[in-house]
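Hey,
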Amino acid sequence: MTEHSEERASRAAERYKEVAALATEAAERLSERERQRVEHLEHELATERDRVEQAQQQRDQVDEGVRLRWNAAKEALWEERWMQVTQLPAPDPAAEPTSSEEAIRSVQSAYMELHEAVGQKRWSGSGFLPTGWLGRRER
């Protein structure tokens, strides 16, 4: 080999080392960026899983509250023979979305209204008849 070709080979080797170093540095930066992104995504995933778990717990609380109040309402209406009391209906998919707290308040309010209504005189028997209309046995 001549001196000129050795110099060219040396420059090529140096250039190769520079390019290899640049490529290695770029790969390391990319790897670090991907590692940071993975950490960020794992954190987001954990946060979202927590949110899903919390939402499921809230849904279960609402479901349980509705079920308990439905059963209590059925008990309160047991004596109302004219009323067909059915099983708990399925959730209404057309209902407006609401917080679990608001849903529980709404169900509790409706239950209390029913409880108060059932506690009042009913639309039957002597409840609405004037006293003078009662038979001897009913007085």
